[in-house]
């Protein structure tokens, strides 16, 4: 149990009743109880989300924005209510600033092709950071190749923090966008987004923030941060996969042309000419992932009911415990030791390939991620081909941290270290 003080009140986070809401956690893997420590890849889903999705299929399944019949009206109402839930979670000014997409990747591509491409000219620059996920590198690179623009990169320090002193020098007259992650999936670093946005805006540069790893852990206020775009994926925040959202400032979305054409994104179509619907529908061509949106809203509301602050405090304790404990295992090197970190620990072990670490841990029922985490430039920066990564969610326990540590001793025994 984790005790957290918020103002005058002490609120305990009792993990067992939370775990009870996650059916998938209660199984054995390779004869051992599952310890699921791969939450940065995807989180498991609580009963509230499973019920919301199956409830849609059982009661309300119909296409949205089309029918006059009762089920279609109910589906439309639930879908638009889900947009309102995302709006509240991000504190956007209006629901129309929320576009439903497949996930963070699709949201970034949307901004690349619809917002930036029309404004980009040969010789212009797009600024990213050295700690970006490929999803926040490759779309910009594709754009640069087409237009003859250049990608520039904010470097990271040895502890895995952004070199902010380099930022001002990199923000130049030709910088057309800064795209950076809120929380690094491979290091856990939480970036000082407010300060970075202020510096970029002082140079007239709009900012896209990739919140894929932030939303399950960090409170978010797009108005306070004044970000131009914010993107995230449902599946990393206890919701379904195949759904996510793009927040875009109203004035940006209004000015952006559609990037995919089809049904529901139009006002009228003739063979000569199409006029487009206002945002957000302009960017949601075709039948959307209705059950995904409804499941996502259920996930956001569920997390709110648990309490984001309590969850974050519990995860912080798991992170501190795991960091201390992993440091005691001979040969372990933690990559990413920023002062502000989410509960993500990337590490290597002398004489053990990350793939072997992952396989041996799996035999013990412990699920961690191994590989380059879709952050190959970052791996290169730290001189490693890959790492093992343990990433924690609010349903993880201190006993699971102990099992991870014991599992790493088992890796050493198996590999004769
Ligand atoms: C920081 C970050 N950005 C973007 C993504 C891409 O998310 P998705 O694959 O859900 O679109 C991920 C997924 O791992 C991520 O960790």
Question: Could you name the key traits of this structure?
Answer:
single chain, 417 residues, alpha/beta, seven-stranded mixed β-sheet, four-stranded antiparallel β-sheet, 14 helices, globular, disordered N terminus, binds pyridoxal-5'-phosphate
Descriptive account of the structure:
The chain is of the alpha/beta class and 417 residues long. The chain has 14 helices and 19 strands. The strands form 6 sheets. A 7-stranded mixed beta sheet has the order 6-12-11-10-9-7-8, sandwiched between helices. It starts with a strand and ends with a helix. Bound molecules: pyridoxal-5'-phosphate (PLP). The site of pyridoxal-5'-phosphate has 13 residues, from α4.
Question: Which kinds of small molecule does this entry bind, naming each only once?
Answer: pyridoxal-5'-phosphate
Category by helix and strand content? alpha/beta
Number of helices: 14
Strand order of the largest sheet: 6-12-11-10-9-7-8
User: How many E strands?
Assistant: 19
User: What level of helicity do the residues show?
Assistant: 25-40%
Kindly report how far apart the N and C termini lie: 35 Å
Multimeric organization: single chain
Low-confidence parts: 1-10
The overall average pLDDT, rounded, is 95
Shape field: globular
Rg, alpha carbons: 22 Å
Q: How can the largest sheet be summarized?
A: 7 strands, mixed
What proportion strand?
Answer: 15-25%
